[in-house]
Amino acid sequence: MIIAITDRKISSRSDFLEQIEAIADSSPDMIILREKDLSEAQYRYLAVECMRICSYRNVEFCVNSFIKTAATIGSGRIQISLDSFIGNREALADFEEIWVSVHSVGDAAEAERLGATHLIYGNVYETSCKPGAEGRGTEELRKVCETVGIPVFAVGGINADNVTDAMDAGCRGVCVRSLLMGAKDPSAVMSDMRMAENDIEK
């Protein structure tokens, strides 16, 4: 699985929703709307639009951080930090999928124990999202995958050149941000990623 994570600040197109449409046209398995610096009302507007774009193209959609918005629009899916998960477990009780961001084997085990359905582990490689933060590497990713029984997705500096190494560590899929958000032709980028993914499956 290849999941796109949004960041309007690095969008290749000045119209953020046009970039989302271009990314959705490239057929990722899911798009996570990560714009957590917005107000709830601003985020909700984008969430509704992004959900519509994804639904039209049969791409799964996930809200990031904004629990009320996810509940209101009926997405049934939320991606959230471990701290926020711990602090909002009652509000998350009715969600079908809870994707929790983790950064260590201990985090992963705790998130699974508390009821997370999916984990996003990173950063695996150096990434512009966290400048100066050294990548944790694929061996740590492997340990996380071996520790938990729920799907793990790798994030952080993933591209067509290293996706094979990440997948070989045991994760179910990968998440990419700048690779697609900064692309003028997301379909070409996705094609390269899918070729690498297919090589793994052979």
Short synopsis of the structure:
The protein is of the alpha/beta class and 202 residues long. The protein has nine helices and eight strands.
Structure description:
Helices cover 43% and strands 18% of the residues. With 202 residues, it is α/β, with parallel strands linked by helices. It has one domain (2-197): Aldolase class I (TIM Barrel, Alpha-Beta Barrel). Strands 1-2-3-4-5-6-7-8 form an 8-stranded parallel barrel, surrounded by 4 helices. The model has no long low-confidence stretch (mean pLDDT 94).
* Number of helices, where a helix is a run of at least 4 consecutive DSSP H or I residues: 9
Number of strands: 8
Radius of gyration: 16 Å
CATH superfamily: Aldolase class I
Q: Summarize model confidence as the mean pLDDT.
A: 94
Query: What percent of residues adopt helix (DSSP H or I)?
Result: 40-55%
Spell out the key features of this protein.
eight-stranded parallel beta barrel, 202 residues, 9 helices, single chain, 8 strands
SSE arrangement:
Blueprint: E1 2-5, H1 16-25, E2 30-33, H2 40-56, E3 60-64, H3 67-73, E4 77-81, H4 82-87, E5 97-102, H5 105-114, E6 118-121, H6 138-147, E7 152-155, H7 163-168, E8 173-176, H8 178-181, H9 186-201
Parallel strand pairs: 1-2, 1-8, 2-3, 3-4, 4-5, 5-6, 6-7, 7-8
